[in-house]
Specification:
The protein has eight helices and 14 strands. By secondary structure, the chain is α+β, with helices and mostly antiparallel strands. The two termini are 29 Å apart. The protein binds aspartic acid.
Length: 311
């Protein structure tokens, strides 16, 4: 019998039902469902966990609903700087990019770093040169323009504030995207992609492209993709911490993921959540915020898509 698992997220934050309209809810549910379908088709046909997470994340990068790729938030300079990472759990190969501009699918560039370079993490101009060497074409800045994100940036651009996209009180929505999967061969992979925080400056980089902080995969333990206040997730080395608790303390995926999100990162003051899958295909999707866009599917069982707590 086929056995595979996939989980995706579209960011965690102040997601409250009273701030949503039925139409918005429907668009998110539809986008999550389609992203999941892209992954399921690959897994169903015996494809790899790496290709699965890259495809699901690419789909979400193409949607203006999420803070990644097309929907990336504005920096303090009114530009878009994107970060992404991907990791596979068999040989522990990984690729990541940061501070890149104009690239339609940052997760594909991260995958290329993993597959076609001698390196793990490329940033800024160098990452853009690498993209050029791989024949990437650049999107016009208009491609990344979104009125709502522009308004969010205008509201704080003359201050020293920066903010998590999905933590804007009333308008709270959107977020970093991620996917984790176990394929039919039992291999795990994780991918994460983000536009970071609105009004970010000084080359600020969050946890998303940092292997071990926002993204991690190891066939011996689990695959993890995080979303939330990146500075805290970096300090808590969150994604690797879940794996380490399983490896060194023999915790279950569920216990390890809950311990990190509801205890360790919470104590530091960090808001957010993660999605994780273990080598047996178990899933855990904890978050300490009001909600997290999330969805998952396993072979031979229906898709589950949720936004709020207690769903
Ligand atoms: N973790 C991301 C960052 O700090 C933001 C997010 O999850 O939405 O860049």
């Amino acid at each position: 019998m086929k056995n595979y698992t996939i989980a995706i997220h579209g960011g965690a934050g102040t997601l409250l039902k009273e701030h949503m309209t039925e139409r918005k809810e429907e668009s998110y549910t539809e986008a999550l469902s389609q992203a999941l379908n892209h992954g399921i088709t690959i897994l169903e046909n015996g494809g790899s966990a790496v290709d699965t997470v890259a495809a699901a994340v690419s789909f979400m990068e193409d949607s203006p609903l999420f803070n990644a790729g097309k929907g990336s938030v504005f920096t303090a300079q009114g530009t878009h700087e994107m970060d992404a990472a991907i990791m596979e759990g068999k040989a522990l190969n990984a690729g990541a990019v940061s501070l890149i501009t104009g690239i339609k699918n940052p997760v594909q560039l991260a995958k290329d770093v993993m597959e076609y370079s001698e390196h793990v993490f490329l940033a800024g101009d160098g990452a853009m040169e690498f993209a050029k060497s791989r024949d990437y074409s650049l999107e016009d800045p208009d491609y990344f323009f979104d009125q709502l994100r522009h308004d969010q940036w205008q509201a704080i651009k003359d201050s020293d504030n920066f903010q998590l996209d999905h933590s804007v009180k009333k308008d709270s929505k959107f977020g970093t995207v991620g996917a984790v999967a176990m394929d039919q061969q039992g291999n795990l992979a994780a991918a994460t992609s983000t536009g970071g925080m609105t009004n970010k400056k000084w080359g600020r980089i969050g946890d998303s492209p940092m292997i071990g902080a926002g993204n991690y995969a190891n066939n011996e333990t689990c695959a993890v993709s995080c979303t939330g206040s990146g500075e805290y997730f970096i300090r808590g080395v969150v994604a690797y911490e879940v794996s380490a608790l399983m490896e060194f303390k023999n915790m279950s995926l569920e216990d390890a993921a809950n311990e990190v999100i509801h205890n360790r990162i919470k104590k530091l003051g960090g808001d957010g959540g993660l999605i994780a899958v273990d080598a047996k295909g178990n899933i855990s999707l904890p978050f300490n915020t009001a909600g997290m866009y999330r969805a998952y599917a396993k072979a031979n069982s229906p898709k589950t898509i949720s936004i709020y707590k207690d769903e």
